[in-house]
Design goal:
The protein is of the alpha/beta class. It has a single domain, classed as 2-enoyl-CoA Hydratase, Chain A, domain 1. It is built from eleven helices and eleven strands. The longest helix has 19 residues, at 202-220. The model has no long low-confidence stretch (mean pLDDT 90).
């Protein structure tokens, strides 16, 4: 296993497991964690010994989104100097299929990380929410394009406009996840699926994944660019000021809906 600050990476029998590891902050994305994640994905994407990747979080959360306290103090959290990372993506796309193993809350930026995976396996403890509008920021990693693809436009708009939390059972019904398993079985299930993928003809799998990506890009057209433009215009408008003041209310509401301590 490789430890890089708040990130853990292990590779076994062709399967890489990437674990967000800021459990004390519910794996919220600090600049250090985000840069580490981007570096890890770039490295794994170029490795011939990796046939599939599993992305998960250290319990009790998958990812609570951007570290809003850090973001409110320094807007550079979202900036990256890597020209290979598309501006509307959290990382450079990998060649290998990417499975999200959602072990707890996946909120806002954390939900966007999940949506950038090829498909999701959820623990019974998984909870999903888009609280961009409640916090006062706009998505920039594809949520308003990718979420409707998974759950339909009406459900996506409901999640985004209300900020309400969706549990694992409802996420399965909506098509956000493909399977819900017992919490203790989550990683084993995700790794088993990843091992099945890695055992296939890898060049064919990677070519097929790239074909899926091109088709999706053609279907969505300029959607990702339009989302990014809206996010940048919103940031420039200054109307997102006061993020830190809204954070306690967002956290309290989420705990009230999920029963988390």
């Amino acid at each position: 296993m490789t430890e890089s600050g708040p990130l853990r990476v292990s590779i076994e029998e062709g399967v890489a497991t990437v674990t967000l590891h800021r459990p004390e902050a519910r794996n919220a994305l600090s600049r250090e964690l985000l840069l580490g994640l981007q570096s890890a994905m770039a490295d794994l994407g170029g490795r011939a010994d990796v046939g599939a990747i599993v992305l998960t979080g250290a319990d009790p959360a998958f990812c609570a989104g951007l570290d809003l306290k850090e973001l409110s103090a320094d807007a550079r959290l979202l900036d990256t100097a890597d020209p290979e990372i598309p501006p509307n993506s959290p990382w450079k796309p990998t060649r290998q299929p990417l499975i999200g193993a959602i072990n707890g809350v996946a909120i806002t930026g954390g939900l966007e990380l999940a949506l950038n995976c090829d498909f999701l396996i959820a623990s019974e403890r998984a909870v999903f929410a888009d609280t961009h509008a409640r916090v006062g920021i706009l998505p920039g990693w594809g949520l308003s394009v990718l979420l409707p693809q998974r759950v339909g436009f009406a459900m996506a708009r409901r999640m985004s406009f209300t900020g309400d939390f969706v549990d694992a059972r409802r996420a399965l019904e909506a098509g956000l996840v493909t399977e819900v398993v017992a919490h203790e079985d989550l990683l084993a299930t995700a790794r088993r699926l990843a091992a099945t993928i890695a055992a296939n003809h890898r060049p064919a799998v990677m070519a097929l994944r790239e074909s899926y990506r091109r088709i999706e890009a053609d279907v969505t057209g300029s959607g990702l660019d339009l989302e990014l433009q809206a996010a940048r215009e919103w940031r420039r408008s200054g109307q997102s000021a006061g993020i830190a003041d809204r954070v306690p209310g967002v956290i309290a509401r989420g705990r009230g809906q999920t029963g988390a301590e």
